[in-house]
Write a structure and sequence with these properties.
Layout lengths: L3 E2 L8 E2 L42 E3 L17 E3 L17 E3 L53
Parallel strand pairs: 3-4, 4-5
Antiparallel strand pairs: 1-2
Length: about 150
């Protein structure tokens, strides 16, 4: 992979080569732009990725567990078999994304947008979903939290 990470702080224009299977845990990626990047087999566990952009990115078997992705944008991204367990995703935008078999267990997705997203086979068990917009979503075989009125989402 030969994407350039565009950030607002230090590291502007740094090129990262061969990120496959790398562990990028607990790094401050605030406002990083990974639009269209291939993020397969990466671990961003516990990383701070506030206000970051992942629009059109793709990832398979990657982990964002416990990452801070508040206000991040994942519009049109394709994430397969990934984990966002216990991640902070308040106000994140997953509109039009394909999120198949993604684990959002225990994640805070308060006020997030999943408009027109495909979340087939994903789990949101124990996720905080207050104010989250699932309008137009494919929720086939998706595990949602219990005791929620989905007609209001």
């Amino acid at each position: 992979m030969s994407e350039i990470l565009r950030t607002t702080g230090e590291g502007l224009g740094i090129t990262f080569e061969s990120l496959k299977r790398e562990v990028l845990n607990e790094i401050d990626w605030h406002r990083v732009d990974l639009s269209g990047a291939n993020l397969d087999n990466l671990s961003f566990e516990g990383a701070s990725m506030r206000n970051s952009v992942f629009d059109g990115a793709q990832a398979a078997k990657s982990s964002f567990a416990k990452a801070n992705c508040i206000l991040a944008s994942f519009r049109g991204a394709v994430f397969l078999n990934c984990s966002f367990r216990e991640a902070r995703l308040r106000h994140a935008d997953f509109s039009g994304a394909i999120l198949r078999n993604v684990d959002f267990s225990g994640a805070d997705i308060t006020d997030a947008k999943f408009n027109g997203a495909d979340v087939e086979g994903s789990t949101f068990v124990t996720a905080q979903i207050s104010g989250t917009d699932f309008s137009g979503c494919n929720i086939l075989n998706t595990q949602l939290p219990t005791a929620v009125n989905y007609e209001d989402t």
